[in-house]
């Protein structure tokens, strides 16, 4: 391009123009509709969804690297191949969130072994959204599955007062406590993981924020690492621990135990073990809350009688 004022030739790179240059939208662009970002939902977006959909909130609780995100993304991955757990994929407002968390588990990522993107504590509380249609009656069930960094749940063991601020616990119809099967398989880490899960359960259930009708689930992840004759002691210790937790909670809550292996790193191993029975429990209809009819006080003056006439 020639600069006529300076009388010299100047090369102009259009890709290095200032970012402040903006393109004015045409009149046709003014009618465009803004589409959802399709990322993971914030608390405010979840509130908006609950205004028009009767969704079940599933709170996933566990420490870092326990397999919380892998459990959820692998359930989503089952529906990429078709129907799963007697249900069909129906809709999701967090498809981009699912894909971002699943990318490192796919061959296109270039990784030698599958992995899952870690959740940072700075991300705060987010939710996956998954709407499924049951094959029996094709009724739609919306699931809102919490995603929070494991460091937050670890901190509430030392600061129990913070447990009252966990919104996902207060609203959850199902609370899933994750038990890391990899740490259970390691003799030196077994007692630590049992103590951590027990302390987290005690702190959360004693806050008074758990709904009486909420279901408590103990979900063991990476259960394939507990296979074999050399893991008999680990499996026995796990069974004993599960029985103690069930005895501690059974008088107050409905407790269920699941063993899962969402992602099997070995070629000859079966992936997705235990996911279907777990998902089916999430798709159950929430029990109706019985509300007591308020008693009408004695009406003693004309203003009270006026109120009664307006309600009849």
Word description of this protein:
This protein is an alpha/beta fold. The chain has one domain (43-282): P-loop containing nucleotide triphosphate hydrolases (Rossmann fold, 3-Layer(aba) Sandwich), CATH 3.40.50. It has helices at 43-50, 68-78, 95-102, 150-158, 167-171, 181-185, 187-205, 232-249, 275-282, 302-311; strands spanning 2-3, 8-9, 55-61, 87-91, 126-134, 140-147, 174-180, 215-221, 254-259. Strands 4-5-6-3-7-8-9 form a seven-stranded mixed sheet, with helices on both faces. It has a two-stranded antiparallel ribbon with strand order 1-2. A hairpin with a 5-residue loop joins strand 5 (126-134) and strand 6. Helix 4 (150-158) packs across helix 7 (187-205). The model has no long low-confidence stretch (mean pLDDT 84).
């Amino acid at each position: 391009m020639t600069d006529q004022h300076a009388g010299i030739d100047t090369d102009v790179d259009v890709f290095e123009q200032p970012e402040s240059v903006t393109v004015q939208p045409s009149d046709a662009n003014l009618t465009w509709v803004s589409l959802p970002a399709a990322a993971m939902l914030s608390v405010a977006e979840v509130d908006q969804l609950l205004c028009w959909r009767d969704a079940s909130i599933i709170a996933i609780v566990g420490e870092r690297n326990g397999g919380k995100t892998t459990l959820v993304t692998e359930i989503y991955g089952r529906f990429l191949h078709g129907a799963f757990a007697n249900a069909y994929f129906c809709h999701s407002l967090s498809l981009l969130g699912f894909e971002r968390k699943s990318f490192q588990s796919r061959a296109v990522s270039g990784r030698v072994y599958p992995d899952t993107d870690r959740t940072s504590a700075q991300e705060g509380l987010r939710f996956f959204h998954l709407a499924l249609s049951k094959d029996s009656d094709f009724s739609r069930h919306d699931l809102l599955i919490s995603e929070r960094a494991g460091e937050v749940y670890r901190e509430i063991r030392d600061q129990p007062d913070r447990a009252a601020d966990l919104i996902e616990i207060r609203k959850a119809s199902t609370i899933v406590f994750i038990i890391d099967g990899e740490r259970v398989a390691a003799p030196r880490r077994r007692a630590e993981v049992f103590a951590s899960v027990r302390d987290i359960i005690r702190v959360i259930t004693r806050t008074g924020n758990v709904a009486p009708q909420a279901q408590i689930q103990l979900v063991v992840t990476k259960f394939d690492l507990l296979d074999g004759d050399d893991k008999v002691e680990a499996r026995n210790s796990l069974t004993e621990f599960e029985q103690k937790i069930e005895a501690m909670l059974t008088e107050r809550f409905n407790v269920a135990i699941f063993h899962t292996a969402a992602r099997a790193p070995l070629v000859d191993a079966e992936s997705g073990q235990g996911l279907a029975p777990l998902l089916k429990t999430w798709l159950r209809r929430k029990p109706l809350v019985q509300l007591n009819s308020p008693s009408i006080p004695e009406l003693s003056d004309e203003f009270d009688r006026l109120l009664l006439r307006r309600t009849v």
